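During the no-cost extension, the postdoctoral fellow (Dr. R.K.) reprocessed legacy sequence entries with the updated structure-token encoder. One reprocessed record is reproduced below for audit purposes.
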Amino acid sequence: MMPLPRPLAGRAFAAAFALCVAAALGAAPNPTPSASPGLDLSGIDRTVPPGADFFAHANGAWLKATEIPADRAAYGVAGLVTERTNQRTAELIQRAEKAHAPAGPVAQKVGDYYASYMDEAAIEAKGIAPLQPTLDRIHAIKDRQALARVLGGTLRADVDALNNTNFYTDNLFGLWIAQDLDDPTRYVPFLLQGGLDMPDRAYYLDPSPRMADIRARHQAHIAKVLLLAQVPEAQAKAARIFDLERRIAQAHWSREDSSDVKKNNNHWTRAELDTAAPGLDWGEYLAAAGLGDEAQFAIWQPSAVTGLSALVASQPLDTWKDYLTFHALEHAADLLPRAFGEERFAFHGTVLAGIPQRRDRWKRAVDATGGALGDAVGQLYVQKYFPPSSKARVEAMVRNIMAAFGRRIDALEWMTPATKARAREKLAALKIGVGYPDKWQDYSGLEVVRGDAFGNDQRAERFELQRNLRKLGRPVDRTEWVMTPQTVNAVNLPVMNAMNFPAAMLQPPYFDPARPLAMDYGAIGAVIGHEVSHSFDDSGALFDAAGRFRNWWTDEDKAHFDASSAQLVKQYDSYRPFPDLAVNGKLTLGENIADVAGLAAAYDAYQMSLGGQPAPVVAGLTGDQQFFLSFAQSWRLKMREPALRQQVLQDEHSPDEYRADTVRNLDPWYAAFDVRPGEALYLDPKDRVRIW
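Re-encoded structure tokens follow.
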């Protein structure tokens, strides 16, 4: 992943924000009876010893009794939080929609956007007419200069960047306006590989029979979309479009290479774009994108940018026009007649993720409204559901976990004093945001027209692009949030040395002021520790206290860190969710480091919070048992096979069951559950990974 956003979890384009995909893909489970506040004791499978499979021990009874709802690719505890948040948000939006002007101009925009998205009859009546000007511009392309202008006009700020973890956007390139890795006092435009309809290059290039079948279905999907729009010669055009995407995939970097900051931190001048990536008319492209005056660009995946540019010149103009037509239809599917959205879901939902049933429109409307007016919806949410007392409790936990992490740095026997000093400096510089941003985004410049769902979406995209472009040349704002308060997730921003913990993440079962602290530290405490640890994972450790990409380690310390990281890679490489597919320990390394170090810091902070007193026993469970069970139950998830395979292939987060088994690297877990040699999860003390 780029080192800019480091969310607790991320997915590719077709999914949404999630706690290791559970929040976006999991549906809301019925509350399970429990003898303990904050712990689901009835969900524990006591026939599975903790040392055999801690995830199954903590969640096995729930897993056996649970069916994945038809409109979800997965079903988990994070889904409970997301569904509750969506229901609350929907009520707030619907209230704003009914209130109109008396609720205030921002609330009115929220209500009008939602009402327009929900007006299926009006959308159906308009057909594809709202998209026709875009299709006409594509049809009018007569030369490569005009092609470059249209391609540049599709460039958008990747507002879904936290989910689209490698920027596999359906536009030819992805754009992210962020701090320069070499000079974090200024913003710079990052250009990244894009152009694919499917979520990863492997779907186009993997020779396995399963992937070959998906490719055949994808080509059929392209043809169906064109037929719905009454595009002539749909089958032949679909074949050419798919072949172009296959060529684009061949130019793409792998997930592993895309995560290597050293390989990807490249700066090209405007002139170097012409010489290093010939084929695309960069002057026309950048002018159309609103970047015509920029003198320098940060280029991620440079050979991919070169390869995609070359394809603009080498592939037939008519093929590019067909490609752009398909992508315009695909991008707007939910704002066109129902058949377009149903077809998009049939492929992206059912074929790629195994989901039998599409989500209700009101849920999609909530997501769309939040995507366009996130902070406006967030203001409504925190006023109702995030009291100051909750903010104060979480901030106290953050202080304790930061202190615990500092103590862990001081206690490292292998780290030299010089490196420790730099690490402590970086820890002290972290800016923690809890619940909501210090200042809200201003939407006065966004026009929302009731009854114009398509136009509202287009204007919201352009508004977000312009908001990001305005950052260029201005001072960096470290208070800016990249998540909305109603997002069920958390994020670390290494270049900004900042973290966001949205209000929606701070609710049961992750956080509950009414339950014992042991449970809160095991659940949300581990999340906080995870995000703090991202500042010191394999990518975060490359940035200093100012967010500058530079080496602040001694050679000896870096060698030790790399050796411990290799040990963790090996551990996760051994996990095999399917006989033919294993977890990629290198791809998931940063998240795995954050899981191990974050859990350790949360445990230390929990012990500090006791003030030397014994933890209260609850339902026969010691404080340590409550802590570790809360952690494992926070990863509760049941997932359909296609979605799990997609995650293993492309996601930088390990599957949830292995994240729950992170406990095997912590000594106190062994004592808490009497885990002994010979049990499956037992690790000899020398094999337990201790990076921080």
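The longest strand covers residues 173-179. The chain has two domains: 6-88+372-437+479-687, 128-336. The remaining legacy entries will be reprocessed before the final report is submitted.
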